[in-house]
Design a protein that fits this description.
Oligomer: single chain
Distance between the termini: 32 Å
Number of helices: 10
Helix content: 25-40%
Strand order of the largest sheet: 3-2-1-4-5-9-14
Largest sheet: 7 strands, parallel
Shape: globular
Number of strands: 16
């Protein structure tokens, strides 16, 4: 089997390339080495075997797709976006880049396409009122957030809403530049599968962490930011009350899920597109993410035991307008259809992450 892998030198891409190699898959590696994800040293001396190419110009290097069975498309501009000035970057790298890769793949006869999507396509998660059942709350007001009222309220009775698992049938509600671009990528994949014809899979990665993660940048994940604070001797800063619930999934599990999709897509019917949550299946509050990373950090300080004094997170009550309260994934579809179940529980993986090598 021959796979063209975009974003091959990135955080998830490098782990996926290694996992594909374990399955004796021939990998054609492509990466632009964007500065938002790669340090100067990597850009000056690209990894061996990686073609430094721009997905937006895929038509110029389509010869690399000759003999390819499946494209695994992980190249993207990531993160929520720092400001509206980032909009062209997301539209260019994610929308145009994906469309260009799909067009080149169709021209070269590729019939399988797997891509990285994201949990951000859901916007807010799924909520249930004890009295009125499932509800779709509106955006949280700045007045409520300033008053420390962080939970969503039932639009019928005003009572508290509890979170529930989000499955792939949930409506899409992008709330950032990145989220809008990921929804667009899914739509492009659907159109490509029908027009090509071929089969496509979009993997909605949840909060990915692990070795090789980028260091503290505006585009990094929160786990990396907590770790950076601890390395400076500072308590990790947690917004709101720390009770926001997410799913954190280890990069090794993400790579396994991605390879499972690449191996499965060739057996899917032409014209099909299917989305899957890629998650651990173990919800965790953001304050507990910070505590887990702090525990791993303190263990090293204590000589490898868990008797060091972990820095307790500093819960500030600060908030960002537009942040969602809870997004917790259902792992059922990926387990049933891809045979994927995560192996790393967040509390264990996040503690190890405290000392694992990061991307410079």
């Amino acid at each position: 089997m021959r796979v063209l892998l975009t974003g091959a030198a990135g955080f998830i891409g490098a782990a996926t390339a290694a996992e594909l190699g374990r399955d004796d898959v021939e990998v054609v590696a492509v990466d632009l080495l964007l500065p938002q994800a790669h340090g100067e040293a990597v850009r000056a001396a690209p990894p061996v075997g990686v073609h430094v190419l721009d997905t937006r110009c895929a038509g110029d290097w389509g010869y690399l797709l000759d003999g390819v069975d499946v494209v695994v498309h992980l190249a993207a501009m990531v993160g929520a976006g720092v400001s509206a000035a980032d909009l062209p970057l997301y539209a260019g790298h994610n929308d145009l880049g994906t469309a260009s890769v799909l067009a080149a793949a169709a021209e070269r006869g590729v019939r399988g396409f797997v891509q990285a999507s994201s949990m951000v396509v859901y916007g807010e998660g799924r909520y249930v009122c004890a009295e009125h059942g499932e509800q779709a709350p509106g955006p949280r007001s700045s007045e409520a957030l300033e008053a420390g009222e962080f939970e969503n309220s039932c639009p019928v009775c005003g009572g508290p809403l509890g979170w529930a698992l989000v499955d792939e049938a949930a409506p899409l509600d992008p709330r950032s530049s990145y989220a809008a671009s990921k929804v667009a990528q899914e739509h492009y994949a659907t159109a490509w599968a029908r027009q090509c014809p071929g089969a496509a899979i979009s993997l909605r990665y949840h909060n990915v962490y692990g070795p090789g993660m980028p260091r503290d940048t505006p585009y990094s994940g929160v786990a990396a930011m907590f770790r950076s604070s601890l390395e400076r001797g500072e308590a990790p800063v947690v917004f709101e009350d720390g009770g926001q619930v997410r799913d954190f999934v280890h990069v090794a599990d993400v790579a396994r899920a991605t390879v499972a999709a690449a191996l499965a897509v060739g057996d899917r019917p032409d014209g099909s597109h299917r989305a899957y949550n890629v998650c651990s299946g173990y919800p965790i509050a953001i304050a507990d993410v910070a505590r887990a990373v702090a525990t791993g950090s303190s263990a090293v300080a204590a000589g490898g035991t868990h008797q060091g004094a972990a820095l307790e997170p500093r819960v500030t009550g600060q908030f960002r307008i537009g942040d969602v309260r809870h997004v917790v994934a259902s792992p059922r579809r990926a387990r049933a259809e891809l045979g994927f179940t995560a192996k790393v529980r967040p509390e264990h993986g996040l503690a190890r992450f405290a000392t694992e090598p990061l991307r410079p």
